[in-house]
Write a structure and sequence with these properties.
One of its GO terms (molecular function) is serine-type carboxypeptidase activity. This protein has one domain. Helix content is 32%, strand content 22%. The protein has 3 helices and 3 strands; from the N terminus they run H-E-E-E-H-H.
Length: 69
């Protein structure tokens, strides 16, 4: 993939939920239209383990961000 070196050199962005900036829930690394997510404390069923992060991630994919409570 011609974008590999750019993707690898891109910093990952921490993911938070709500106003709690003291607890990192995961990380996202993006280059152009490729996005890689590390979700901390989650297994294969992210919506059960980290529902807030899952909602934000799906909102980003669909470009219709939802508000989690």
């Amino acid at each position: 993939w011609e974008g590999l070196q750019n993707f690898l050199s891109t910093d990952r962005t921490p993911l938070y939920c709500g106003s709690n900036r003291g607890s990192t829930k995961g990380f996202r690394k993006s280059y152009k239209n490729f996005h890689f997510y590390w979700i901390l404390g989650a297994g294969h069923f992210v919506p059960v383990d980290q529902p807030c992060v899952a909602l934000n991630m799906i909102g980003a994919f669909t470009q219709s961000p939802a508000v989690s409570t």
